[in-house]
Amino acid sequence: MGAPRLAASVALDGLDTLAFTEEVLPRLRELPDVVVDTSGEIADYREATEAPVVSISTKATDSRDWFDLGIVITLEGEPVSFAAVFSALAAGQSRMLLPSGAYFSLDLPELHQLRALIDEARSLQDNPDRHGTLQISRFQAGLWDELAQLGIVDEQAAAWREAVGGLLDDGVTGLPLPGSLDAELRPYQLEGFNWLSFLYRHSLGGVLADDMGLGKTVQAIALMCAAKEQTESGAGGTAGGSAPFLVVAPTSVVGNWAAEVQRFAPGLSIKTVGETFAKSGADPQESMAGIDVVITSYALFRIDYEAYAAKEWAGLMLDEAQFVKNHQSKAYQCARKLPASFKLAITGTPLENNLMEFWALTSIVAPGLFSSPRRFAEYYQKPVEKNGDKAQLAKLRRRVRPLMMRRTKEQVIKDLPPKQEQVLEVVLNPRHQKVYQTHLQRERQKILGLIDDVNKNRFTIFQSLTLLRQLSLDVSLVDESLSAVRSSKLDVLFEQLEDIVAEGHRALIFSQFTGFLGKVRERLDAEDIEYCYLDGSTRNRADVVSEFKNGAAPVFLISLKAGGFGLNLTEADYVFLLDPWWNPASEAQAVDRTHRIGQARNVMVYRLVAKDTIEEKVMALKTKKSQLFADVMEGDALAGGALTAEDLAGLFAE
What we know:
Blueprint: H1 14-30, E1 46-47, E2 53-60, E3 66-75, E4 78-80, H2 82-90, E5 95-97, E6 102-105, H3 109-123, E7 135-137, H4 141-149, H5 158-164, H6 187-201, E8 206-208, H7 216-232, E9 245-249, H8 251-264, E10 270-272, H9 277-280, H10 284-287, E11 293-297, H11 298-303, H12 305-309, E12 315-319, H13 330-337, E13 343-346, H14 355-365, H15 373-386, H16 390-400, E14 404-405, H17 409-412, E15 419-426, H18 430-447, H19 454-473, H20 488-502, E16 507-511, H21 514-526, E17 531-534, H22 541-550, E18 555-559, H23 560-563, E19 574-577, H24 584-591, E20 603-610, H25 614-633, H26 645-651
Parallel strand pairs: 1-6, 8-13, 8-14, 9-11, 9-12, 10-11, 12-13, 15-20, 16-18, 16-19, 17-18, 19-20
Antiparallel strand pairs: 2-3, 3-4, 3-7, 5-6
Helix pairs in contact: 6-7, 7-8, 13-14, 14-15, 15-16, 18-19
């Protein structure tokens, strides 16, 4: 490149003209050997004496869930193109020049924050340009709140304020507390009812994510009672008229739901659907006519979806809503599509493994909050899980706060006795340890070459993980010919049980492996200790639960999958978790079968972890998963999401 040369002529416009006129031209005139000749009048540029005024308004659209977002900027009474301001901010310009010659600084915190909020609103829409204008959903109350806090919302559409305003206030007003509810709500439950009934009144959905054991079911039943009373009184504003509520729950919890509705709301008529309409021969519409609450399982809801979709519903309640956390599953798609103006997800664990599960729940109950899974993954999941972005994590919590209610036991129940948790380290006896190490070396060699492609080899990898976990418990679970090798874990468990039973305590014993529970049964029989037993194959589930609650058996053996939710077993005050798993939600659900409202004694929780085995590594991974849950719900620290190749490699490491 040669030396720079002066151009014969150049045309300037915009900010370049301003800079030349205000800065370059005066300096040229000061140079002794330069003659400046001008023709025409030099523009009168001046810095505006006022800051720009930004106002935002909403305008109802054809869709009741979306509002057009109007943004108007004025400077000294003169309109300024918002699109031009937005482009200038995006280009990193520091000043904006108006046709009148007035200019103003763009380096204002309010404008930068406005741009970030508008970027967010646009990025989370399915199709930002579908109407050629920016839109905001009724469900995005948190985003609107931040715009309002900027002090730039000078006109609020009455429809918007009516629809979501109460969610942004500390005290929402819902329906009157129903007289037909046969329960006295605790203060936090009353707060939950008010929030639920506000959502119902305004056809908004939400996630009731109270800690397990805090009475989420009774809060939901209170809403059903209130909705019926509102309809019978002829008052307007309810979501579904005289239509019934549809409750969808895991199969094992359907009976418990029916019992709870009968207990707390004897005035509500109930229909429990226990088999497909084809099998029962019942006409769907006739069998559900005149009913207040229809209760069915996720499996039957999925199979008979068309019958449910053909009926009008006051609302859809998804209990243990983590069952629809996979947005590619049929159950999720049915819940998402079902025509109901009010949808509620009830779960103590709205997030178990990764943020996309959380997106799935919100997309069912608040479809306009985060419309697109791809955009949500780009905007929130990747920054939070992969990059540890604290700002995006904080923003996510602010966005979901209006539509999710979560209270922990520590926050709301002062009279719940303490829960003491302890890890019991189990040292494998020499023969047990030798068998375990032999298999570990073999599985390690097989697996480490497969981890580079986790998805392709997932089944084989988890097969090896399961094998090593079973070997940590009892080697005869893998090889029956080794039944003479004593299970170190069973020995430690029965050392504990001896004193517990002698002192009159009662214990819940959980395992994910029914085969290992079978080994526990054999030892209990041999030592003549009475017990109850529940796993996924148990047909008379309610009878077994009743037997333990009303009987004297000191021990209740429960498979984690069958008994991790839907049970109220405050008769027990000891919990043994025989095998840890990396998902902390499963363990927490098991513990909270007994540490819940109604418990009057201290609850002792023992996790049995085999030393120098895969179980120790699982415990470390579990901590990581637990942190992800805490991060999004209420925490500050950051951690990763789903199991990665690095996680799996760590499980098989030396």
